[in-house]
């Protein structure tokens, strides 16, 4: 692709050309956007651009076009920059107009008093890789990329080159999930391992030599964080949005030097220096080598993070979905069988797990989120790695997931809710800052008796709010701010969970393998990759389908409800109807049916009844509302 | 304009006008001061061209005048030098003239007007072509360079404004005690002369209504216009009160600029304009002494010189002008001039933020006496803040290793740093905590919005419409929704403090109780999301301290800080308390005061105070037995003290109605939730915004009063309520119920946007009150509504029964003859055998207790002794 090299390798040159041609007509900005959008529309153009997610930063050419799949973790204040400015050549006194857009640093000899200076506004987003992204998703993305990145000659990929600090971390960090064939990939990632300072304990801010906290929501994450400079449509972006950002990479070492060079004594005299605390400096202007800057040219909001589904265009996706629809029912049967094996032969629990995995909040009525389906799988064997193994299975199926082990220590010490740090002026992330449709597995089997302290109570409350209202109240110190979310919560517990849930299924194992782990891994290994891939596609497709209920079925459901109430008003409440409607919805979608049929409704009623008879002895006691 | 001394702002016309060029400045102080005035021209203004005070002030006079400044007790000869730069305020001009009352008053510099802006102006000035300024001879036509402001006219206008402006409708508390029919600002000037605080706050709204053009100039060119105002005010002031002594000259602080900006909508065009933004203080810095003028002394010949700060930097003179020694000048800190400065970080208030984004922050600099006026956590209308100054991007000049060919040049980070210089702060918090009867946040409505709201209000079924728009996802419970709607509007606040009763509660309190799973929590969540100042707590998780307030010691400053809890925070809002029954006894007890007196008294760690907590309480309680027992009274079901229950205006039961038609409608409603399209949902979301505005508008602007008929109707209703019970020998209504009725009627009038409470309002209040009573105060034994269930915790019949049992027991014991002691169990069995009605153990125990109270017997362990 020789023709495309220019716009990928030297996008600033393209911009420059347009700027010069425009003759300071402000239209050039729109033209630039148009041009890049057009280029990106071309077939496969997306895949030619190297991605920050899978190419180590030092392999990438500065000022080239790169893409970054990320989550907007924090939004900084808007900043004013020199959109257009004039430089004077000191020898010839010639004045040249230049543009400051898509750049961090100006050229030499800026004429600060020129009348041609145009001040413009841009905003910086702090973006992190999508939290909890599973290995298979990462790899599939990496494989689909066709960008040929030539390592720069100066780089010798040897471990000796690494600083001792990184090495230390390499050794101490348990890296279970790394498999041999991902060695190279993981190596690249671990280059930037100075990631999350152990959450819960605040690193002393004065300690300037402490490793930079990259503020990832989940502990143990790695990957590059990025400061994305956004120029257009500032209002269309929201916190926690999943984006694929296309932009110009800027790792100008000047940026770091500019920060470090500051003379501390000057701060008294220069009012601008005293504006920022050192912590704020570190948070907002981290060294470009660690946190590269990305000047956004185009951003694609991601509806899902499944690399197996076409994400480019709506029509593509449509075609893909409709072609997959015919397969839905058969894939579902296979998938159900697989889940049944995993859940020790419990078919009902497997059915519910399947429904849970395809649930998603599709609308909100005032405060009520619709479509959420929190599942509580009770009766899980305690003190075993059952949940862990279950999570590993889920990891293989969904693009993003995270397992939160609800130990007393974790509950008391983890920071689940993001909190605004006013000293550093940034949003300190928490484990509940997750992208949409992330699967969150809460392992309550790990919870033992003991005292919850204040933060523990807050954490439990936050989890309860998340489950009941699908929202997280971010802590802004002086007030809280509510951020709606869409997280699939799956609770495994021994008895009934202390957290509220939409639906509780007691596990009734049909087989009792002597060695649980071995059993699960053999079940897991028995699946072919192609089959697993089908499951992955199946889950994502089912999640995105539309759904409707015809008037006729509505009527039937109403009648049914009235009848049920007639027999025994205590047996069915409005809440039960809510749940059954969700079950009916998910059940239909899981079969690839986009409208509720009478049979679908009966089936939903049937499995709900099965479930209820199973959990009957357990539910009567704690009848209080969540 | 003959005198350069009097016209420090000579830059506005032409540099060449000024005879004394900087190069010619010698060692005498007055000219150097002149030079300063001229160079630092940004803060300066040209003197009024027509000013008669054009004679050159003699240096000596000048010096002494400055010496009188209490702030600077330095040697007299230096004083004038150390005095901050002046911008042609009267002291520099007026002295020596007959009306030299200002003689003793030094000018005080105004760093808030942005000394940093100096450079660009000087530079602009160097573009010689920018000579918009005319020749001095043009006189009145003279305008400040780059603007259309003519100093003379501007000053005249402002003086006219001060002298004439009358605002008879003013209701600001700042103007309390002023005669509204006299010129407002002249009274304020008088106040200044008495109090001696040389700050004049000017409401921009007043300026606008008086002279729109002046207002426009003020907004667009604050840096030029405000000093002109200062000048005008001082002239006026010292003309009027020639003998008054002020610390420094009066400074004008405009506030309430209508060009209020949301922090989010600040953009490059706002730079150097006057704006008002509101937000919350999140951090304040230490006090920063900012050097205004550096004092250098030559080590060789002791020659001293001063250098003014320029763009935040001081250029150290390399050569001593006196002895021509190079690098001999040293900075003398003690003799340099500093001003106070403080950095304040302000964050967007959560109310005006788009959903899903994080709040923005802005840096504000407070100068001089505005320093330490605000604390972190304060909600302020950082009213009137001048320019969003653009600082020069010299911040990060990169000097060392050059990336470019020419090492002498520099790369610059292309980002500007912006800040706001505060002229005036206005706390919005303060009023809430200590204020009288003022809705602190006056939400601004556009005219269109008001029109749509009024149209809506004019509809006959507005009440039903609104109540159905409330929490549409929750089905039915129409009366409960209506009750909550009335709660959202609230009654009219009345002040009876003069008659000793204090404030009357205007807030309506509602308790919802009922079966679990009847979407009580959801209703609470909805209300919490609807009202701007709502708080949501759960009884389980809150402590008394969390609800009220607690005193905390700031670890850094060792200062005691009052941290307010949910109830105080929801002042003027609604406090939603879920799981009310699970609250601990001590926590609930704090609610007693809040729910009737609407205040919170705190006596902790040496802080004794009373905070306002004019909050409506919306509580939800579950029955003790998890299922509502229809055979028991409300009190028995939820086990709450009746003292607390009687403070709720309305108590609703949310029960499963268990009838077929209801079930059908419910099913339909729920099913429709699950297939309605996005657009339909959108429509209803819109409704929520309208509802919000409607409520806010009604709460702010509508204050209904009872009319004659309505009061008659209320009296009748009350008498009727009393009558119902009197037949059966029980009290069925207390004055508290009458108050509730009044509040509800007022709230209903507010819903109609009516200033009068009419009979229909009373009717609805009666109906709703009756409905609620019917649900919650029906005696399950008799089927009658019995208010005493709620007021005393026991129905009249129950009380009667208790007495009967006690009497029967007494009789039985007496019939047994003289036995000093009896077995407890046996007595119980005997009584049960004797009585026709079933007697429970509880009843038996109660009877025993009643007899013990009569001193008839005592119960010790398992035996009963007669006395």
TrEMBL record, chain B:
Ranges annotated as biased composition (Polar residues): 61-71
GO terms, molecular function: ATP binding; ATP hydrolysis activity; chromatin binding; single-stranded DNA binding; single-stranded DNA helicase activity
SUPFAM superfamilies in UniProt: Nucleic acid-binding proteins, P-loop containing nucleoside triphosphate hydrolases
Record bears the keyword Hydrolase: yes
Residues covered by region (Disordered): 1-120
Annotated EC: 3.6.4.12
Domain MCM C-terminal AAA(+) ATPase: 462-670
Compartment list: Nucleus
Keywords of this entry: ATP-binding, Cell cycle, DNA replication, DNA-binding, Helicase, Hydrolase, Nucleotide-binding, Nucleus
Record note on quaternary structure: Component of the MCM2-7 complex.
Record's protein name: DNA replication licensing factor MCM4
The organism of origin for this protein: Esox lucius
Lineage: Eukaryota, Metazoa, Chordata, Craniata, Vertebrata
């Amino acid at each position: 692709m020789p023709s495309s090299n220019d716009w990928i390798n030297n996008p600033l040159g393209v911009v420059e050309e347009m700027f010069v041609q425009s003759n300071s007509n402000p239209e050039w900005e729109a033209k630039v956007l148009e041009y890049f959008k057009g280029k990106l529309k071309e077939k496969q153009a997306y895949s030619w651009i190297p991605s920050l997610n899978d190419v180590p930063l030092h392999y990438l050419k500065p000022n080239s076009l790169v893409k970054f799949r990320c989550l907007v973790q924090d939004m900084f204040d808007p900043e004013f920059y020199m959109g257009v400015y004039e430089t004077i050549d000191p020898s010839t006194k010639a004045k040249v107009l230049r543009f400051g857009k898509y750049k961090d640093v100006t050229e030499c000899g800026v004429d600060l008093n020129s009348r041609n200076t145009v001040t413009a506004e841009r905003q910086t987003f702090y973006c992190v890789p999508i939290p909890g992204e599973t290995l298979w998703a990462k790899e599939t993305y990496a494989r689909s990329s066709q960008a040929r990145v030539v390592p720069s000659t100066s780089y010798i990929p040897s471990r000796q080159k690494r600083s001792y600090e990184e090495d230390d971390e390499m050794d101490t960090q348990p890296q279970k999930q790394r498999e041999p064939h991902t060695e190279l990939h993981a190596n690249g990632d671990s280059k930037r391992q100075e990631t999350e300072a152990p959450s819960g304990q605040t690193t002393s801010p004065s300690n300037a030599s402490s490793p930079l906290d990259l503020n990832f929501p989940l502990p143990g994450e790695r990957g590059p964080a990025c400061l994305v400079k956004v120029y257009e449509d500032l209002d269309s972006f929201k916190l926690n949005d999943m984006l694929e950002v296309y932009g110009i990479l800027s790792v100008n070492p000047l940026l770091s030097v500019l920060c470090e060079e500051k003379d501390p004594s000057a701060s008294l005299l220069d009012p601008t220096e005293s504006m920022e605390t050192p912590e704020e400096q570190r948070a907002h202007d981290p060294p470009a080598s660690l946190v590269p800057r990305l000047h956004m040219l185009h951003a694609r909001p991601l509806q899902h993070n499944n690399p197996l589904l076409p994400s480019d265009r709506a029509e593509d996706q449509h075609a893909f979905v409709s072609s997959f629809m015919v397969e839905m029912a058969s894939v579902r049967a296979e998938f159900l069988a697989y889940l049944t094996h995993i859940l020790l032969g419990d078919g009902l629990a497997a059915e519910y797990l399947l429904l849970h995995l395809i649930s998603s909040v599709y609308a909100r009525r005032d405060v009520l989120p619709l479509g959420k389906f929190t599942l509580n799988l009770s009766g899980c064997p305690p003190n075993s790695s059952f949940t862990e193994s279950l999570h590993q299975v889920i990891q293989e199926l969904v693009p993003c997931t995270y397992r939160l082990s609800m130990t007393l220590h974790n509950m008391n010490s983890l920071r689940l809710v993001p909190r605004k740090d006013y000293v550093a002026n940034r949003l300190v992330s928490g484990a509940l800052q997750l992208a949409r449709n992330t699967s969150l597995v809460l392992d309550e089997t790990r919870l033992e008796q003991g005292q919850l302290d204040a933060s523990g109570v807050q954490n439990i409350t936050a989890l309860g709010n998340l489950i009941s209202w699908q929202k997280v109240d971010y802590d802004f110190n002086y007030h809280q701010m509510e951020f709606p979310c869409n997280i699939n919560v799956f609770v495994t517990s021994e008895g009934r969970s202390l957290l509220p849930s939409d639906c509780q299924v007691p596990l009734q194992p049909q087989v009792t393998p002597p060695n649980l782990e071995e059993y699960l891994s053999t079940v897991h290994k028995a699946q072919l990759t192609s089959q697993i891939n089908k499951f992955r596609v199946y889950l994502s497709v089912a999640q995105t389908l539309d759904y409707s209920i015809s008037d006729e079925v509505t009527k039937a459901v109403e009648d049914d409800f009235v009848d049920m109430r007639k027999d025994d008003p205590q047996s069915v409440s409005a809440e039960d109807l809510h749940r059954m409607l969700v079950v009916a919805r998910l059940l239909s979608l899981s079969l690839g049916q986009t409208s509720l049929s009478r049979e679908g409704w009966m089936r939903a009623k049937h499995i709900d009844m099965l479930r209820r008879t199973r959990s009957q002895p357990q539910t009567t006691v704690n009848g209080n509302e969540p | 304009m003959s005198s350069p001394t009097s016209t420090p702002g000579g830059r506005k016309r032409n540099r060449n006008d000024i005879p004394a060029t900087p190069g010619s400045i010698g060692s005498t102080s007055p000219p150097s001061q002149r030079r300063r005035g001229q160079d630092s021209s940004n803060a300066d203004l040209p003197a009024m061209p027509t000013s008669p005070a054009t004679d050159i002030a003699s240096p000596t006079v000048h010096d002494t005048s400055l010496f009188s400044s209490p702030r600077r007790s330095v040697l007299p000869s230096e004083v004038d030098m150390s005095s901050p730069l002046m911008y042609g305020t009267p002291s520099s001009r007026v002295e020596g003239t007959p009306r030299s009352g200002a003689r003793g008053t030094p000018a005080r510099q105004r760093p808030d007007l942005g000394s940093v802006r100096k450079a660009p102006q000087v530079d602009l000035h160097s573009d010689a072509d920018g000579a918009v300024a005319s020749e001095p001879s043009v006189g009145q036509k003279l305008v400040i360079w780059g603007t259309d402001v003519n100093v003379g006219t501007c000053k005249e206008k402002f003086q006219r404004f001060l002298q004439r402006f009358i605002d008879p409708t003013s209701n600001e508390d700042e103007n309390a005690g002023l005669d509204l029919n006299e010129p407002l600002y002249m009274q304020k000037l008088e106040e200044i002369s008495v109090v001696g605080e040389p700050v004049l706050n000017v409401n921009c709204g007043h300026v606008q209504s008086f002279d729109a053009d002046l207002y426009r100039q003020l907004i667009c060119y604050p840096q030029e216009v405000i000093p002109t105002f200062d000048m005008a005010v001082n002239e006026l002031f010292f003309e009027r009160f020639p003998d008054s002594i002020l610390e420094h000259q009066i400074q004008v602080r405009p506030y309430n600029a209508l060009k209020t900006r949301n922090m989010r909508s600040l953009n490059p065009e706002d730079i150097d304009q006057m704006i008002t933004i509101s937000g919350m203080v999140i951090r304040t810095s230490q006090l920063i002494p900012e050097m205004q003028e550096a004092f250098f002394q030559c080590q060789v010949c002791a020659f001293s010189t001063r250098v003014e700060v320029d763009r935040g930097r001081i250029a150290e003179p390399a050569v001593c002008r006196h002895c021509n020694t190079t690098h001999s000048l040293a900075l003398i800190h003690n003799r340099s001039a500093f001003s106070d400065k403080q950095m304040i970080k302000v964050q967007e208030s959560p109310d005006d933020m788009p959903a899903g984004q994080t709040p923005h922050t802005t840096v504000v600099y407070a100068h001089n006496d505005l320093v330490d006026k605000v604390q972190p956590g304060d909600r302020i209308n950082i009213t009137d803040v001048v320019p969003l100054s653009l600082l020069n991007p010299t911040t990060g000049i990169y000097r060392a290793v050059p990336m470019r060919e020419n090492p002498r040049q520099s790369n610059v980070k292309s980002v500007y740093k912006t800040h706001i210089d505060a002229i005036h702060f206005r706390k919005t918090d303060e009023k809430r905590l200590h204020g009288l009867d003022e809705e602190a946040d006056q939400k601004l409505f556009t005219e269109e919005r008001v029109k749509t709201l009024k149209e809506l209000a004019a509809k006959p079924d507005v009440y039903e419409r609104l109540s159905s728009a409330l929490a549409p996802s929750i089905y039915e419970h129409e009366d409960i929704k209506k009750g909550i709607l009335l709660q959202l509007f609230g009654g009219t606040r009345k002040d009876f403090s003069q008659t000793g009763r204090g404030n009357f509660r205007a807030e309506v309190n509602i308790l919802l109780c009922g079966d679990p799973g009847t979407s009580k929590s959801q209703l609470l969540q909805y209300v919490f999301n609807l009202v701007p100042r709502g708080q949501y707590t759960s009884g389980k998780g809150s402590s008394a301290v969390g609800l009220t307030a607690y005193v905390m010691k700031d670890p850094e400053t060792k200062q005691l800080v009052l941290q307010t809890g949910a109830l105080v925070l929801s002042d003027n809002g609604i406090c939603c308390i879920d799981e009310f029954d699970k609250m601990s006894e001590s926590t609930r007890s704090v609610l007693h005061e809040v729910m009737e007196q609407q205040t919170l008294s705190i006596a902790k760690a040496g802080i004794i105070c009373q905070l306002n907590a004019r909050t409506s309480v919306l509580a939800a309680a579950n029955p003790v037995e998890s299922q509502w027992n229809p055979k028991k009274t409300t009190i028995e079901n939820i086990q709450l003290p009746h003292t607390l229950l009687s403070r709720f205006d309305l108590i609703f039961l949310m029960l499963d109605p268990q009838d077929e038609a209801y079930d059908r409608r419910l099913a339909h409603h729920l099913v429709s939730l699950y297939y309605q399209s996005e657009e339909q949902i959108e429509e209803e979301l819109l409704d929520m915004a309208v509802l919000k505005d409607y409520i806010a508008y009604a709460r702010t602007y509508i204050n209904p009063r009872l009319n004659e008929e309505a009061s008659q109707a209320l009296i009748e209703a009350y008498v009727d309520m009393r009558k119902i019970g009197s037949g059966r020998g029980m009290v069925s209504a207390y004055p508290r119920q009458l108050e509730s009725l009044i509040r509800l009627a007022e709230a209903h009038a507010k819903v109609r946007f009516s200033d009068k409470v009419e009979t229909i309002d009373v009717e609805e209040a009666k109906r709703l009150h009756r409905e609620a009573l019917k649900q919650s105060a029906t005696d399950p034994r008799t089927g009658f509504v019995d208010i005493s269930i709620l007021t005393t915790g026991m129905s009249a019949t129950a009380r009667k029964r208790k007495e009967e049992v006690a009497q029967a027991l007494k009789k039985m014991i007496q019939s047994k003859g003289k036995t000093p002691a009896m077995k407890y169990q046996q007595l119980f069995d005997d009584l049960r055998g004797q009585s026709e009605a079933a007697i429970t153990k509880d009843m038996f125990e109660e009877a025993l207790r009643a007899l013990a109270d009569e001193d008839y017997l005592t119960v010790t362990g398992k035996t009963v002794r007669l006395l």
